[in-house]
Amino acid sequence: MIYALTMTQNQASVFQKACSEYEELRWNKWKAFVEDVGSSVGQSTREQALEAFEGAMRTAFGNIPTRPTDEMEHAFSLSFYMMPQLLEMDEDDYITLEMDQDQTEFVQMVLEEYFRLRLNQWFDFATEVACNGYVYDKEDPDNGKKFSAYIKRRDASKDKFEKAMQMLVPRYGRQTEDMLIAQDIWQVIRYRLYLDKGGDPNGAVVDARPPMQISQEPLPEFIRKKKEYRMADKDGNRQLTLAEKWAIDAMAYESGAKVKTGKQPCNGCMYQIKGDALHCGIYTKERKPKPVLFGHEKCPKYREEK
After folding, report:
1. Which DSSP helix (H) or strand (E) runs through 61?
2. DSSP strands (E only) in the chain
3. Taking the CB of the first residue and of the last residue of the chain, which one, N or C, has fewer CB atoms within 10 A?
4. How far, in Å, CA of 178 to CA of 181, rounded?
């Protein structure tokens, strides 16, 4: 099955940020997360929280992976694909992504992780990263010891993640607009997949509840396509679907290819926010001017990190 997800500019921005964050956290890169969540606390507190998150990850994972997992590659591909689209979008624009069922379920999980971590709910994240290759095998004579070590890593890291989060948000208050937007997208995907898997729309389970708008954005449109229509560019050449783009990325990774990108004009600036090309420490409530976004002009506020 092929699904089409249509989002506003703000929804697409949150979508991209969630995908970028999913990959970065699994490389034990927490700076963008800490800067985003801890915007109301001082710099010294954010630095302490950053060290705490990195320590919690080492408790869970031990050695950070030397190569990405399939899920990390998928998240990177999505984030990388969305970046140029966002730069071209205006406030009234919409973007539509085509995904198959497996990719849609992955996106649903990424969005849920995005808002749950900000709610200081770390159990699922700690369960995943603490696994670190462990597979339950009752035939393995050392399985009991390995399982106990896994549970110990999971519980210890979960406590450390929660304590690190409390340094940034000591008393949890209102959810941010980005968190609410992530939940809106997550809701429409969850409900559509539930129905398509034969779920009872009148069932008593949570998934049977129709999505309800909780952010300032209208609910995104999410439909199952009866036929896989393919768009073409102005010259009549067929455009690749997102599923095809992912397949190409996966083949490239398997062949040993490495992603190379040009240096962005904002790289090295002390105001840069990783994972968010549209905003920075100067342009927080509005987008960067287009000449700055596209590197035609140097930002007058540019300052190199020392």
Report:
1. helix 43-61
2. 2-8, 94-100, 221-225
3. C
4. 5
| pLDDT single digits (tens) 249-278 | 666 666 665 544 434 567 778 888 877 777
For 47-58, b where at least 16 C-beta lie within 10 A, e where not — what string?
Answer: ebbbebbbebbe
Distance CA 21, CA 13 (A): 12
Residue 124 CB: number of other CB atoms within 10 A? 14
Note whether 95 and 6 are within 8 A (CB). Answer: yes
Radius of gyration, CA atoms only, the chain: 21
290: CB partners within 8 A, 6+ apart: 296
Please give the Cα distance from 306 to 298 (Å, whole number): 19
Question: Count of CB atoms within 10 A of residue 8's CB?
Answer: 18
The letter for the amino acid at 245 is: K
**pTM recorded for the entire structure:** 0.74
| Tokens of residue 117, six digits | 């971590």
What is the C-alpha separation between 192 and 55, in angstroms, rounded? 39
Angle, alpha carbons 124-130-135 (nearest 5°): 100
Question: How far apart are alpha carbons 60 and 43 in whole angstroms?
Answer: 26
The answer to whether the CB of 38 falls within 8 A of the CB of 279 is no
Task: Give the neighbor-by-neighbor strand order of the sheet with 221-225.
Answer: 94-100, 2-8, 221-225
State the Cα–Cα distance between residues 249 and 235, nearest whole angstrom: 24
Sequence length of the chain is 306
Q: Are 7 and 15 in contact (CB under 8 A)?
A: yes
Distance CA 303, CA 306 (A): 9
Q: Please give the structure tokens belonging to residue 276.
A: 């968010």
Question: How do beta strands 221-225 and 2-8 pair?
Answer: antiparallel
Spans of the chain, pLDDT less than 70:
63-66, 172-173, 226-265, 294-296, 306
